[in-house]
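Researcher: I'd like a structural prediction for the single chain below. Treat it as a standalone chain; there are no partners to consider.
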Amino acid sequence: MSRGFVREGDQEEPVVIPPRAILPDAAINYVTPVGKLELQEELTDLEKELSDLKNENETDLRRSQTLIHGKIKLLKERLASARVLNPEDQAQDEVRFGALVKFKNLTVNSVQELSIVGVDEADVAKRKIAFTTPIARALAGSKKDEVVTFKLGSETRELKILSISY
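Model: Treating it as a single chain, here is the predicted structure.
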C-alpha cells in the first residue's frame, strides 16, 4: 500500500534493541565463571520481566514484548558462544584473562588496579576491563616488576606491573 493511504497517527516507531558489548570479529567470547553466572542471571531476569508484563495499552505491551524478546535473543547468542576461562587455570605469575593487575603509570605517577574480564562483564566503574581493550592487550603476558609500553593516541605511557592476582 502506498504511504499516501496510511494515517500519520497509525505509524509506529520501530523498537530499537540495544546491542550488547562489541566482540571483535573472530574473537572468542571468553568469560569468567562469575561472568557466565551473571549472564545466566540476566537471562532469568529478562524472562521474568517478560512473564510479568501487564500493560493495558496493546501497543505498549507489544513494543515491550518485542524489546525483551530481542534482548533475550542477543543474550542467548552470547551465552551459546561463551567460553569459560577459569582465572585459577592461568599462569599465576603473568597477566592473563581474569587477572587483577595493579600497575603504576610511570608517566603520570599514578597507581591503578584493573581486572581483565569478558566483554559482557566489563564495567569501568567496577575497574573491570574487557580483554579486547588496548590497555588489556598491552598488559597481557607481562610479569611483576616488568615495564610495559602502552600507546594511547599519540601519547606513550610506561606502566610498571606491581602485582598480579587471580
